[in-house]
Amino acid sequence: MRRNRLVLVVWILVALAVGFLAGRARITMEGEEMAEPQSTEEPTRKETDVSLSKPTPVVVRSIMPEYPENARREGIQGTVFVRVLVDTTGRVAEAGVFTSVHPALDSAAVAAARQWRFKPAEMRTRPVPQYVVIPVKFALEQ
């Protein structure tokens, strides 16, 4: 019983700390709600400023992988997630398996992903390298 109360108190303290740090918590004292502290400084950038958004490459050309014959015979199917690094020219600089299904499908997915082309991500109108995870689906026809 004492341990349960301790766990409950710890959870409440953690929740309050996270909420307070996020700037969303309101502290109450004797039933009165205290206002959140307001910043007197003007924000330096608007929330909608595109330069603050996370850059994302856009697929220009995707290559479908060859379905490995041994995987087809064994009835193996699924989606392999491949993590690629898109360089400033839109080419894949690195490719590796993020989520595996089967070694044969994994290698086919990586080989296909290396041939993909992207419009590179931009930050402040300049191309920047960016990692992206792409799904490569292998499905047997019914």
Keyword list:
142 residues, alpha+beta, TolA/TonB C-terminal domain, two-stranded antiparallel ribbon, 30% strand
Verbal overview:
The model is unreliable at 20-51 (pLDDT under 50). It is built from three helices and nine strands, in the order αβββαββαββββ. It is 26% helix and 30% strand. The protein has 142 residues and is of the alpha+beta class. The protein has helices at 2-21, 69-74, 103-113, and strands at residues 28-29, 32-33, 58-61, 78-86, 92-99, 117-119, 121-123, 126-128, 130-138.
Q: How would you describe the shape?
A: elongated
Corresponding CATH superfamily of the largest domain: TonB
Order of helices and strands: HEEEHEEHEEEE
- Mean pLDDT metric: 76
Number of domains: 2
Question: What is the helix content?
Answer: 25-40%
Oligomeric organization of the protein chains: single chain
Number of discrete helical segments: 3
Task: Give me a quick take on this structure.
This protein is an alpha+beta fold and 142 residues long. The chain folds into two domains: 2-30; 51-138, TonB (TolA/TonB C-terminal domain, 2-Layer Sandwich), CATH 3.30.2420.10.
